[in-house]
Amino acid sequence: MTTSTTSTASVRGELVRSDICIVGNGAIAKTAALGLSQAGHSVALLVPPARPGQDGAAVSSGERPWDTRVYALNHTAHALLSSLRVWGALDMGRVAPVDAMDVQGDGENGGRIGFDAFGAHTGTLAWIVEDSNLNAALDAALRFAQNVKVVTGRALRLEHADDARIELEEGGVIEAELLIGADGRDSWVRGRCDIGIDYRSYHQRAIVANFECEKPHHNVAYQWFTCKEGIVALLPLPGKRVSLVWSAPDTLADTIMNESLGELAIRLGEHADAKLGLLKPLQPEAVQALPLALVRPHAVTAPHVVLIGDAAHVVHPLAGHGMNLGFADIVDLLKVLGAREAHQGVGDARVLARYARTRKEDVLLMQLATDGLERLFGANLEPLRVVRNLGLNLLDKLPLVKRRLIAHAMGK
């Protein structure tokens, strides 16, 4: 295998041959490219052309606005990114640790459960990292990666009976023994492999925005399970700042998106005033609304193809673990490929079947947990309201069970 540093190019009319081709341009695709290249595989990373105005110019942390999209990365993600020398390249001044979680039920006498790093026997529960911070560190690592070729182009056709072959709109071709679809919830790779999905809309949108808080948050992540208004989460950012993720019913989301962020801050005061004081929108003001759904593909592999990240599973964000499932996909894929027998290639059907079995339980548990909690707290029935609040209070008094739950959430 020839060793070379990363190159970026369009391949108009050219043939690119690699061990593995990854389709996707997000953090999961880039992390997979780094991990697989460091494991000794040649990798072609197919990314779409940049949109107009997407120059990627870096700005200093003092000038850059805070992302509306942030991730609560667990210990699995931290260990993987550290092993790839990406974690140390993050702008740590923009990373906030989560030292405790405060989860509250609905109603005036709602139940409550709390988790903290001390009780979990760890230094921190998770880390809040902005999308741009993570991707900037990954891009920097990819520039010095060995055996990675970043190809800019749009996929047009896919053949994957004997190896994988992608034809590009621009006229180039990429051939690989294994194709990895890391191209999101509407995965082109998944569709071209005729992998069906079970899809259920939650009829909710995740409202995301950032606020300055009057009182210090002490690195606590707050979450309120309400019935009529959905699930409200305020995650700590560095300083006296918090990031909102509000899983709001569509009708409420429409109302919120037609209001100012100042009005949204007043709405949040019903939950946050006692803990965080008055909230003020960070400047420049920014808010997004992302539709929420449960997406369960009927398979995560096809001949010479494997799906990872949101292409393989989309869950409700109430637990904040959608991205962490994707990092766990990469960890298990690296283990399975590394443990294959000498005569088996990276696209061998038996190897891919082993990966699918390895991921099945972890993904299923997260799907069941997030979907079950959303259904439980979305039911507007008084008997259920009483039961779920009692359940939260009971769990809070069972330290062994709490420790087990938080260990699983942390990826330990």
Description:
By secondary structure, this protein is an alpha/beta fold. The protein has two domains: 7-51 and 134-198 and 294-373, FAD/NAD(P)-binding domain, CATH 3.50.50.60; 70-130 and 202-292 and 376-410, 2-Layer Sandwich (D-Amino Acid Oxidase, Chain A, domain 2). It has helices at 27-38, 75-83, 131-143, 188-192, 250-257, 261-276, 322-338, 349-378, 382-396, 399-410, and strands spanning 7-9, 15-23, 43-47, 70-73, 96-98, 100-104, 112-116, 126-130, 148-152, 155-159, 164-168, 173-181, 197-213, 220-225, 231-237, 241-249, 279-281, 287-297, 301-302, 305-307. Strands 1, 2, 3, 9, 10, 11, 12, 19 and 20 form a nine-stranded mixed sheet that branches. Helix 1 links the parallel strand 2 and strand 3 (43-47). Helix 1 runs parallel beside helix 3, helix 1 (27-38) packs parallel to helix 7 and helix 7 runs antiparallel to helix 8. The longest helix is centred in the last third of the chain and has 30 residues, at 349-378. It is globular. The model is unreliable at 1-5 and 56-61 (pLDDT under 50).
The CATH superfamily of the largest domain is identified as FAD/NAD(P)-binding domain
What is the CATH topology of the largest domain? FAD/NAD(P)-binding domain
> Secondary-structure element sequence?
EEHEEHEEEEHEEEEHEEEEHHEEEEHHHH
> How far from one another are the termini?
35 Å
Question: Treating each run of at least 4 consecutive H or I residues as one helix, how many helices?
Answer: 10
User: What profile does the largest beta sheet have?
Assistant: 9 strands, mixed
Shape: globular
Number of DSSP-assigned strands: 20
CATH class of the largest domain: Alpha Beta
Averaging pLDDT over every residue, what do you get? 88
Strand content: 25-35%
Total domain units:
2
Q: What Rg, in angstroms, do the CA atoms define?
A: 22 Å
Task: Give the name of the CATH architecture of the largest domain.
Answer: 3-Layer(bba) Sandwich
Helical proportion, percent range: 25-40%
Assign the structural class, choosing from mainly alpha, mainly beta, alpha/beta, alpha+beta, or little secondary structure: alpha/beta
